Amino acid sequence: MSTATRPAAVMPAGSNSDETPPPWEKVLWRRQPYPDNYVPASFLAELDETPPRPRPSLVPLLVATLPVSQHLAVITLFLAVFYAMLVGDFGATEVGWGCCMVGVVAYVLWRVGWGSSTAATRTLIPEASAMRPLLLPPLLLSLLSPVLGTLTSATTSDSIWPLAGGLFFLHLLLADFTTGPDARRRARLRRARAKRRRSSVGSVDEVVEEKSLSSSLSLTSALSASVVLASRLPSTAHVFSLILLAAGLFAGWPTLAKGVRESGRSFSAALTISMAWLSITLLPPSNKPHLKLGPLSIARPSGATLVFLGVLLLVNVGGPLMLWWGWRWKRRLDGSWDQAVIRVRKRRQ
Amino acid sequence: MVCDFFHPQVGGVEGHIYSLSVELMRRGHKVIVVTHHRDERRGIRYLAPGLKVYHIPYVSIASSATLPNYLLFLPYIRTILIRESVDIVHGHATLSSMAHEAIHHAPLLGVRTVFTDHSLFGFSDAVGVLTNKLLASVLRNVDAVICVSNTGRENTSLRAEIEAERVNVIPNALVPSQFQPDPSRASKEITIVVISRLVYRKGIDLLIASAPTICDLFPEVKFIVAGDGPKMVDLLQMREKYELEDRIEFVGAVRPTDVRDVLTSGHIYLSTSLTEAFGTAIIEAACAGLLVVASRVGGVPEILPTEMIEFAHADEDDVVRALSTAIKTVKAGKHDPLKAHARIRDMYSWAQVAERTETVYERVMSTPERGEGERLARLLGLGPVMGLIMCFIRGVEWWFFVVVCWFWPADEIDVVPAGWDASSFGKAVEQEKQSKDFSQPRD
Q1: What is the pLDDT averaged over residues B7-36?
Q2: CA A300 to CA A280: how far, in whole Å?
Q3: Fewest 10 Å CB contacts: which of A274, B244, B291, B308?
């Protein structure tokens, strides 16, 4: 077939045009009567251009970005409270008591369980009493807050703002946005279960759900950012309230939010909207006059609100749309040059 | 010849450049090699039959590759190209940034460019994604590309997005006299030889999985494993677990000169590599009279006729099957090492490679040169981001070239007189033969 379709120009010079050359073969050990840059008809025949997976529909993509928006809203909430404390709109007492109230409610909610996500687990170590995690951290914090407040107070504010910004960015970058157990954790659980079946000892059912390194780093960077910011506040009571808020928002809230997200899409959307709403109400208002729309009087959005809304829009709508649009360039090229995949039988022990 | 990888380092690319250069010199061409310096080896050196090597003062990073910097190589390469009155720059190896930069700079001096790609890359891993873009930017304006196998050609033309007509296939070769079979050395029991770096890419896991089964099936079979690497531990564990200490022998890393001795002590050569552009080790083994069992990857299916090689998939059971077939063939006495050697001797020779490369050079020299505008336009075709970046680099490079020309005018550079031809090469070879075996490169 190849000899019939190829033009005579690619034949090597000096070959006898009367006798047809043997068909080209994909071998190197034999010299063939074709030039080295001869393009055979079978060129790239082994190319396996598998079509990519079909483009995901837009709604799941939008839903998948909701956790990021929730996180953004939490950071904004924290910053809004911090600003209010800095300028004196909020006192230390208000914030501290607010944290306590919401914290207790959230804790009870978490203990009772949101939906069906809590499974009874038995561990070797006896269960801590319900009150311990409620009492211990605030006490510790009240001891530490004078130290935390003066830790970076010698540093100028010019250095504090970018440092806090960078730490919050790191926090956002490393945060754990997964909803439900992801594939890797499921595989690890399956392996652990299989191992337990084989071994006779250690029949205690322990569900291994360890925190990943990145999520711990994320929490650490968020707490560092709040400590750094706390040094700008006027009193130790302020510092205590702010760090308590940070601990609640960055350590406690993600677990609760995950439970809410796992309950369903509508819950996730509702949580996002309510968190965003709460953050916006706490942001400093604009000092321009209200917009008059007939009987309605709407507050003009301030600069901070506009920035927040813009980022939310970018993350929650812009991101999915970009992925959706960029899907057209997704393709896979497989061929005989790919690294082979080893198949080895599982050995019987 | 420009490449980061060259002697005294040992490897496939290094050997290829050396052998090709020697053969091209034999055909009456003037060949110089440009590489970076290595410890004590600096400045200009000569390798055995008068091959001139420039060692540029560049610091190498990992595995003897240098950092790409696009511009700083220009003063060096310009001086060398003018001094030696070079017509063609031939870069080697995808991961050699020196070769890439030489190909970028050469057109400024009106020198034509050829590139040889020695390896295969995938499209989905990080290395592939990054180097493919760099390679594409280099090969946009190269005059000809040479690949070592048809599979490599398909891979390169896809990776670098170039027309298939510009890519030539010229296989690697070997020096058959270095791999003379010696049936008298082989032991009575059937010996399977493995010579490879012991790393994942060479499919050592397949060897670990299949060796116990083979030892179980054929009590008269022995293994000799030469080479070293991270997978050595796993191999040792396997040997201990199945108590195969007297059946599997480890000889450690072997020098290139000793490869033949290891090969001729066996009957079957096993290559379980997971990716291979050409597989020089396989034809070396076949040349030494061994029956080859190899995994069907990359360019391996092209290099030997089917009666000299037994293919296996990257599957434990299939490796066992292929090895069993090979062992039965050898037992039945159906494989004649001397005949195999004679066949390989006619298949591959560096003289043939040099002749085919010369044809490529001639074709390159006969085609008209591209203008600077056309080059820029082709670079822009790389894409809206990469194309613009490359055009900027090209612009800076051009101004840098003007500065270099003003600082070191071309007429102040001494030109090396042309006094080298085939007859003086013959004299050098005679001289060398009297003192040492010339096949071994040395200063």
Answers
A1: 88
A2: 12
A3: A274
Q: Chain B partners of A337 at a C-beta cutoff of 8 Å? A: 120-122, 151-152, 154-155, 275, 277, 298
Look up residue A177 and give its amino acid: F
User: Is residue A41 pLDDT above 70, yes or no?
Assistant: yes
Helix (H, G, I), strand (E, B) or coil at B310: strand
User: Which backbone phi and psi does B116 adopt, to 5 degrees?
Assistant: -110, 130
Please tell me if the domain spanning B12-173+351-435 has the same topology as the one spanning B176-347.
yes
Task: Tell me how far apart the alpha carbons of residues A89 and B423 are, in angstroms, rounded to a whole number.
Answer: 96
Give the model's pLDDT for residue B225.
Answer: 93
- The beta-carbon neighbor of A338 closest among B122, B152, B209 is B122
For the cut 80, the answer to whether the pLDDT of residue A51 exceeds it is no
Domain positions in chain A are 63-115+128-178+215-284+301-321
* pLDDT score of B421: 59
Q: Provide the 3-class DSSP secondary structure of residue B303.
A: helix
The DSSP-derived string for B17-85 is HHHHHHHHHHTT---EEEEE-BTTB-EEEEETTTEEEEEE---B-GGGPBPP-SSTHHHHHHHHHHHTT
The DSSP 8-state label assigned to residue B420 in this structure reads -
Q: What is the percentage of chain B residues whose pLDDT exceeds 90?
A: 41
Contact predicate B193/B224, CB 8 Å: yes
Chain A interface test: which of B242, B302, B346 (most A C-beta within 10 Å): B302
Q: What's the CA gap between A147 and A141, in Å, rounded?
A: 10
- B297/A340 CB distance under 8 A: yes
Nearest-by-Cβ selection for A337 from B155, B171, B304 = B155
Pairs of residues, one from chain A and one from chain B, whose beta carbons lie less than 8 Å apart: 108
B412 to A27, A162, B83, B102, B113: CA distances (angstroms): 50, 55, 10, 22, 25
Contact A35 B164 (CB under 8 A): no
> Among B296, B292, B270, B272, which residue's Cα sits nearest to residue B283?
B292
**B14 vs B432, which has greater pLDDT?**
B14
What 3-state DSSP class applies to A275? helix
Model confidence over A141-154: pLDDT tens digits?
Answer: 888 888 888 888 88
Write down the pLDDT at residue B116: 93
B182, B209 contact by CB (below 8 A): no
Task: Classify domain B176-347 at the CATH class level.
Answer: alpha beta
What lies within 8 Å, CB to CB, of B392 at 6+ separation is: none
One-letter identity of residue A167: L
Here the tokens at position A19 are 């006798």
Average pLDDT over every residue of B374-392:
90
Residue B317 is given by DSSP the state H
- CA dist., res. A348 & res. B128, Å (int): 37
Measured from the Cβ of residue B68, the count of other Cβ atoms closer than 10 Å reads 12
Q: Identify which of B142, B189, B194, B186 has the alpha carbon closest to the alpha carbon of residue B168.
A: B142
Q: Please name the helix (run of DSSP H) or strand (run of DSSP E) that holds residue B195, with its range, or none.
A: strand B190-195
Sketch the domain layout of chain B as residue ranges. Answer: 12-173+351-435, 176-347
Cα–Cα dist A311/A295, whole Å: 31
Q: What angle do CA A34, A39, A41 make, to 5 degrees?
A: 105
DSSP 8-class letter at A48? B
Q: Is B348 on the interface with A (CB under 8 A)?
A: yes
Residue A165 backbone phi and psi in degrees, to 5: -60, -45
Q: How far is B126 from chain A (nearest CA, A)?
A: 14
> What is the side-by-side order of every strand in the sheet holding B167-169?
B88-92, B112-117, B144-147, B167-169
